[in-house]
Amino acid sequence: MNVEFAEPEPSTALTVTARAALALKSAQVREKLKALVAKSVNIGEIKNPAGRAECHSAAMVLADERIDITKTGKAARDDAVKFGKAVIAEEAALIAITEPEEKRLLALRDAWDAARAAEKAAKELAERNRITAIHTRIADIKGFVALALECRTAERVQSLIDKLAAKIDQEHYAFDEFANEAQAAFDATHAKLLEILAAKQAEEAERVRVKAEQEAQAAALKAEREALDALRVEQEMFALHAATQRARDEAEAQAKREAEAAELARQRAEIEAEIAARREAEAAAEKVRREAEEADMAARREALAKEAADLAAAKAAHEAEQAQARQAKTERLADQARREDQANLAARRFCDMELSQEQPAATDETPTARPSDAEIVAALCAAFGAMPSEVVQWLVDFDPTN
């Protein structure tokens, strides 16, 4: 019995995206959010507290909308989670109705399959064992060749041939469909055993012949050995005499070598004493030279240290002079700037004073135009042959009361 579940029609079913948009009311909210964003587009720079308040107010409106959207989305997700858990629970309840019967039927089927597989495996094992036993008997027939090769006598090989014939007579009925293979193995093995038997018989005949030759050679060797023994006795006597003479010569040579060794030891001792005295003198001279070099190096290090100290002092004095020069230059420039500022201020005061003291005459004549500061300075420079800076300083020091 199959349980069919109704599926929503594709033409009316909502997609996951559409369901999410419906839960968040995206169609209405999207237009509202766009309108809110459009209201704050013109806020590009804050210039005063009112602008800051306007910017903060617009941001808070957008934040409130974001919080509302987040709350709505969370509620929709929580509902979806509850729905998913309910679907899982209902699914488990429906499966629990049919699952026990499904497992029972599958167990019956698997038991029947296992029984058939066991019967088939037992038959296959029995057939393999039968064929293996036949092949083992055929291998035993072929193994007679290896046994024959290990035999040392023709008699043992003949015994194996007799055993092979008896084995075939007893087991001729036990080869079934492999009877032809067994007969071929027997024929090949029997032929090989006959070859081995013939070879063993030939080897035994050869051994008899070789043994006779060896006995004849042994007798000849015995006679030759006796002759050699007599010759060896004679050689030993000669060797004894030669050894005695050699011992005498070696004793004389040893005495001569000992005397030469004593002379060489005396000469070596004299040479070693001379070398030791020379080394002591060289060591003393080397010590004096090394002490002189160390003293010279110490003097050089002291001179270098003094020179380094003088250089450091000179460098410090030079740096101090440069610092003083920089300080004096800075003060001079500051004083010059101050004096220039004072000169400019005095010039402006002087001009203001002149303007306040001079009143235009109540005449019908047109008043004379006031010269500019630059014209005043230029006129004074031309009149007195002075530099503009000196003229400006005069104007700074000008006192109308004097």
DSSP summary, beta strand count: 0
Kindly estimate the percentage of residues that lie in beta strands according to DSSP: under 5%
Bulk shape: flat
Mean pLDDT: 81
End-to-end separation in angstroms reads 133 Å
Strand/helix succession: HHHHHHH
Structural class: mainly alpha
Q: Radius of gyration, Cα only, in angstroms?
A: 68 Å
Summed up, the helix count is 7
Helix content: over 70%
* Spans where pLDDT lies below 50 across 5 or more residues: 1-11, 358-365
- Give the biggest sheet: none
Structure write-up:
With 402 residues, the chain is mostly helical. Among the domains are: 22-119; 123-228; 373-402, no CATH class. Helix content is 86%, strand content 0%. Mean pLDDT is 81; it is low at 1-11 and 358-365.
Summarize it.
The chain has 402 residues and is mainly alpha-helical. 86% of the residues lie in helices and 0% in strands.
